[in-house]
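Thread: Newbie trying to understand structure tokens

Hi all, I'm a second-year student working on a class project, and my supervisor (Dr. K.) asked me to get a predicted structure for one chain before our next meeting. I've only ever worked with sequences, so writing a 3D structure as a token string is new to me. If someone could post the tokens and maybe explain what I'm looking at, I'd be very grateful. Here's the chain:
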Amino acid sequence: MAKPAPSPRTAGPRIILLLLLACTVGLIGRVLWQGARRRDYWQEVARARSYLDRGDYDRAFQAVSVIRDESPGAPEGMTLAARALLMRGNIVTGRRILERSLKMKPEQPEAAKMLSAIYLAAGDGRRAIALLKEAGRLEPGDFRPWYALGKVYHDLGELEESVRSYTEALRRNPPAAEARESRIGRVRARLDAKHPDEAAEDLAELRRQTPEDPTVLGLAARQARDLGRQDEALGLAERALAADPANFDALMVRGRIRILKRQIRPAIEDLEKALAARPNDRAALQLLAQTQQSAGLTREAKATRERAEQARQRTELMDRLTKVIDQHPEDPEPRWRMGQAAMEGEMYVLAYQCFQAALDLDPSYRPAREGLEVLRNQKGFDYAAVAGAQPRAPGPPSRR
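---
Reply by user tm_fold:
Sure, no problem. This is what the structure looks like when written as tokens:
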């Protein structure tokens, strides 16, 4: 039996009710959607910071793992997630999260400093410099970016920039230990730049604070010799070597002075000990070859000249690879090649860091994994023991 058609008086209210319901549902949907977009993540950020302060990296990561968009607090939460991952040793994911976080919000000094440390360990000096400068701009009272820049520039051979960076670090009144290291870095940069007179004030302050420190005495010996004060230089070198028989600066100073005094055999002994501390120092190798030749040690001089040439070629190769890394930061191969060159030069810490940086980019990159195996099994290098005995300072590993 057919249903009766609704009368106009009953159909009208029903249609109006349906339309109102549809509009209400649509309005609620839009409000909820906009509310989701406007949601912030500051509570998650606060929880993650609290967990990180307590050393609970897993819960810190979980607290901010809900972040899915670019709402307020998202970049800061991603930075904390990256920090938790880095503390657990996950460099690859941590680096990528930091890069995304800084794209979302560049004004994050904490993220910039963490990412710069990752770049430095991977050999990306130029990108690290840009991030450290940005961190210094964002936190003008923080000495740490400038302290790290001093080390980076010195390693790159940009000595005047190194001096300026250490000066900026000292202007920010760092703690005593970091102030001492900044002064030492500035002295070394000025001596390497052949400006020994400009190092006088820092050396005087350092010697006042720690009069028998062998590092300071070795640098003071260098300065005295560069200024032509041979007797003073020799006395300072002897005091440094009494406390540290392997002090490179003091050995080089005493070796040079002994050459001037025609004490050839003792000079050769000093230069050989200096090279035991820094096997790839080209100046020491060249001086040793000349001294051996003057002593009639022709065969030894030839072998030393070959070592010096190999060191020169290795340095040039590593400089070229540094530029390749800057141009192709996601390619593991130049980092592996850098590690190979470092391992040939017995720079095992640098070799380890280069191999590991290649694996951070591509965990399946076999040449880098094989390089680590050679370091462990053939060279007997234990990075964990080295890192535990000598905490790593900011800045790139030295190639000397």
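A couple of things are worth pointing out once you decode it. The CA atoms of residues 119 and 125 lie 7 Å apart. The longest helix spans residues 8-38. Feel free to ask follow-ups in this thread.
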